[in-house]
Structure formats: C-alpha cells, structure tokens
Amino acid sequence: MRESAALAKEQGFAASGIDALARSAGLTSGAFYKHFEGKEALLAAICEAELQSTQERFSSIEPQSEEQVLRAVDAYLSLVHVRSPGAGCVLPALAAEMGRAPAATRAVVERAFEELVAVIAEKVGDRALGSALVTQCVGAVSVARALSTETAQREVLAHARVAVRRLLKA
C-alpha cells in the first residue's frame, strides 16, 4: 500500500486511476477489488496507514521535550518535505481530496487525525496546542507546495517555524 500511497500523494488521488494505483502496489485491477471494495476504500486505508505512520514517528518524542518537538517540526517544515510529497505526510498532499470523500472515509481520517493530535498533545502537554501545531505545519507545507519559487517556499516555512516557536512559548 505504501507505493499506492506515494503515487496518490504525488499525483493526487482523484487523478490516479485504479489501474495505476493497483499496479504501483504490485496488483492487477482484479486483485485490487479482492482487497478493497472500491477506490474510496483505498483512500481510507491509505489515510489511516499514513497517519498511523506519522503518529508512530512522533511517539518517540519525550513528553515536554521542546527540543525534540522543534527538531521534528523543523524536519516537517523543510524544503525536502515540500519537494517530496510521495515520501511525506498524507495531510498536505491529500487533505482537499479527503474533504471531498464520502462520510465513511472522512470518519476514518477523523479518527486517525484525532489519534495523531493526541500523541502530539501528550508531547506538548495541551490538546489545543497539539492540534494547532499539526494544523500550522500541514498548512505551511500545503501553501509552500503551491508556490512557484524556492524563495517564497522558504519564507512560508521559516514563518511557520517562528509561529510554532511562539506557540510553544505561550
């Protein structure tokens, strides 16, 4: 499923056909339908698995370790992440498509997102702050990807890093 997730994050889920998604996972289209009821079921599975993976990466941070949180944030708010959607977080890559998905898919995304926020909240000691950090970072990467120049991308990422530091000091 990682290969399908990477393809969807790079090209967009809606723009990726079943054949391409199945082929990227080493399946035929027929075999795909033995694993998933349809394309939306794959989107739900991708989102759940990708958010679980992000959650696991943040789980290793020690609670109340501002230094470790900032290292993770700085890695997230990087040009490498902006330029590599296939290897990056699913949220900036597919959030708009998730928002247009059926309610059942959005429920899976919501549950996985809430679990991610809970992990971050544990690390920073506050649920609202954890949610704000996640959404600040996702938004910054999304906007940076939409910009045409590296200068503008760097500026958005730098401003987001400053904002995160201010949030953590508040």
Could you please describe the fold and organization of this structure?
- With 170 residues, this protein is an all-alpha fold.
- It has one domain: Tetracycline Repressor, domain 2.
- The mean pLDDT is 92.
- 78% of the residues lie in helices and 0% in strands.
- The protein starts with a helix and ends with a helix.
- The chain contains ten helices and no strands.
- This is Transcriptional regulator, TetR family protein.
Kindly report the CATH topology. Tetracycline Repressor, domain 2
Task: Please provide the count of β strands.
Answer: 0
Low-pLDDT stretches? none
The Cα radius of gyration reads 17 Å
Main beta sheet, described?
A: none
Question: How is the topology of this model organized?
Answer:
Elements: H1 2-11, H2 18-24, H3 29-35, H4 39-59, H5 66-76, H6 79-83, H7 90-99, H8 103-124, H9 127-146, H10 150-169
Helix pairs in contact: 1-2, 4-8, 5-10, 8-9, 9-10
